[in-house]
């Protein structure tokens, strides 16, 4: 331990600490812009400059190491002037259309300027050349708002191991983008949106579809149905200032009904349906010597990755569509028949925690008779904006229930799809009972839960040993994929999700920017959001997908049985090798 003084406050910290960590312990807030603990620690932006007694120059607190007896001044006249000048220089090359920016009132640069009392633009001059890229389905890149902090560069490299974003050119012309400054649509981007989640400004944001949805709602010829993914209920409240991990299922439903959707369904029904199809597929592969390990296919970011990076493993993928695509297909077939509505007049909106879902809905494989299974995808953030646009006092809405006709029932197994390991656990609950013909004494497979590392479990079903694994993010998935390529994978079933922690931390979820202090996020938001889902699972009267009565009725009255020809037509798909680069 070493003793330092922060603005005259004595504090004892560990020997390898930085000035920023010491200040945090002393209760002193030093603003940061580029720094994010364990992701981006470069000292590049110089916003966190402090004065070290005896040092000639100011130093960046985020990377400056403490030493015994050090005295630091974080807010004296010299420091404040330098800090303000740094931000003014950043603003001199920044597109200042804050009122129309997707990040207005939720922008770290905007907050910095406000905190430092910047009311005019001191520096005027040339702007660097701008790239505006909105060609991909899910992500918009606008370099006019980029502060070249490098967070997105490290997110892509450290979380997904792809590194498709990097610094381009030098000096004043420096920008961040894919190779040759190509569009995100033309490179091996997963569209996962993790770069959006760490971007401090509006340089990266989702391609919004709010106005498409509003137009559909106001079109008298359209029958507009909305479905919500399980992870959304664990994050949406944050858009309204509620604590991370607040479960807002009932308020979310109430808001969507007041907005005017004809039906409000839970994608959990689609998740239960997915388990019936995926579980059946796994059993068939086990019994008929099919390709193993079988790998889940619910995450569209992961699907984009494997098509481009490991196309030789496409045979290992489950052929099942993801839950919201399954429900969209059923709505435009079975629901349309039951209600006597032409499928072309049905407009399905999915509210998802994921930017890659925007790409998924546009895939040619996700169409029936020329119609998309799902017409629009809104992220959790977009859903929050939509609710605010309709003037609803979200926090004080009285809870309401999802519509119950046809697809209103869901089980706890569907709920936990939103957390890493949830798909695996839901599948094991059903597959184990189907294979053994016995009811499980304990349905909670806690070995596959959690947000740290690769999770593994070994089960014995009918004297057959089954090993399973769960990975979230491509950095974790890659060793598993390499083992499969080498023919030495010990697993029968693998769950892979594109984002760390699963859908609860998807690229379309609420940002945790309000919880960033000194570049540190002081709450395990993935754990809190996952807890919201597991808590809902625990209170559900039915917790296994095969117990869902409405799913059973869907098979009896329409699909036939899991894995039937009709089920394959509507609920399954194909994948194919894609070029890594389209240029």
List keywords for this structure.
4-stranded parallel β-sheet, Ubiquitin-like (UB roll), alpha/beta, 5-stranded mixed β-sheet, about 35% helix, 22 strands, Rossmann fold, 3 domains, Alpha-Beta Plaits, about 575 residues, globular
Overall structural class, as computed from helix and strand content, comes to: alpha/beta
Unreliable stretches? none
The CATH level-2 architecture of the largest domain is identified as 3-Layer(aba) Sandwich
* CATH fold label of the largest domain: Rossmann fold
How much is the radius of gyration in Å? Answer: 25 Å
Largest sheet: 5 strands, mixed
Which percent bin holds the helix content? 25-40%
- Mass-distribution shape: globular
**What strand order characterises the main sheet?**
2-1-5-3-4
Beta strand %: 5-15%
The DSSP helix count reads 18
């Amino acid at each position: 331990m070493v003793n330092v003084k922060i603005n005259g406050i004595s504090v004892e910290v560990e020997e390898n600490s930085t000035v920023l960590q010491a200040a945090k312990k002393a209760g002193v807030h030093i603003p940061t812009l580029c720094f994010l603990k364990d992701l981006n620690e470069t000292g590049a932006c110089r916003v966190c400059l402090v004065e070290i007694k005896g040092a000639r120059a100011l130093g960046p607190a985020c990377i400056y190491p403490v030493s015994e007896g050090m005295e630091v001044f974080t807010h004296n006249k010299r420091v404040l002037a330098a800090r303000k000048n740094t931000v003014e220089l950043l603003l001199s090359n920044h597109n200042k259309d804050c009122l129309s920016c997707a990040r207005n009132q939720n922008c770290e640069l905007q907050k910095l300027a406000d905190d430092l009392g910047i009311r005019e633009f001191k520096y005027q001059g040339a702007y660097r050349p701008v790239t505006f890229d909105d060609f991909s389905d899910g992500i918009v890149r606008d370099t006019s708002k980029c502060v070249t902090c490098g967070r997105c560069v490290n997110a892509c490299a450290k979380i997904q191991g792809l590194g498709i974003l990097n610094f381009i050119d030098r000096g004043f012309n420096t920008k961040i983008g894919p190779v040759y400054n190509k569009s995100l649509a033309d490179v091996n981007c997963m569209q996962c949106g993790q770069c959006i989640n760490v971007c401090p400004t509006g340089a990266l944001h989702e391609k919004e579809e709010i106005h498409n949805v509003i137009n559909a709602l106001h079109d008298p010829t359209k029958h507009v149905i909305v479905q919500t993914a399980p992870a959304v209920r664990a994050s949406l409240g944050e858009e309204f200032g509620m604590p991370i991990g607040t479960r807002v299922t009932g308020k979310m439903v109430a808001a969507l009904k007041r907005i005017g959707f004809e039906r409000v369904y839970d994608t959990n029904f689609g998740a239960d349906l997915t388990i019936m199809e995926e579980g059946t597929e796994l059993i068939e592969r086990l019994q008929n010597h099919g390709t193993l390990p079988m790998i889940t296919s619910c995450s569209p970011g992961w699907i984009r990755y494997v098509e481009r990076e490991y196309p030789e493993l496409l045979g290992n993928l489950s052929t099942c569509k993801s839950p919201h695509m399954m429900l969209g297909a059923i709505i435009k077939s079975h629901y349309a028949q039951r209600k006597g509505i032409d499928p072309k007049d049905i407009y399905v909106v999915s509210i998802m925690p994921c930017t890659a879902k925007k790409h998924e809905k546009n895939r040619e494989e996700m169409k029936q008779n020329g119609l998309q299974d799902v017409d629009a995808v809104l992220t959790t953030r977009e859903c929050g904006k939509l609710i605010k646009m309709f003037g609803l006092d979200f926090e004080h809405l009285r809870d309401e229930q999802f519509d119950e006709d046809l697809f209103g029932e869901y089980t706890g197994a569907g709920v936990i799809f939103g957390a890493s390991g949830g798909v695996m656990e839901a599948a094991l609950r059903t597959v184990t009972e189907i294979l053994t013909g016995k009811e499980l004494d304990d349905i909670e497979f806690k070995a596959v839960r959690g947000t740290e590392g690769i999770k593994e479990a070994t089960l014995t079903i009918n004297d057959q040993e089954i090993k399973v694994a769960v990975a979230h993010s491509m950095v974790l998935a890659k060793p598993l994929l390499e083992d499969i390529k080498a023919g030495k994978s010990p697993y029968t079933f693998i769950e892979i999700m594109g984002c760390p922690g699963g859908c609860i931390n998807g690229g379309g979820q609420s940002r945790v920017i309000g919880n960033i202090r000194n570049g540190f996020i002081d709450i395990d938001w993935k754990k809190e959001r996952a807890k919201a889902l597991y808590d809902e699972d625990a209170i559900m009267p039915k917790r296994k997908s095969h117990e869902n009565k409405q799913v059973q009725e869907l098979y009896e009255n329409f699909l036939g049985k899991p894995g039937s020809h009709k089920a394959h037509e509507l609920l399954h798909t194909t994948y194919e090798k894609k070029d890594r680069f389209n240029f």
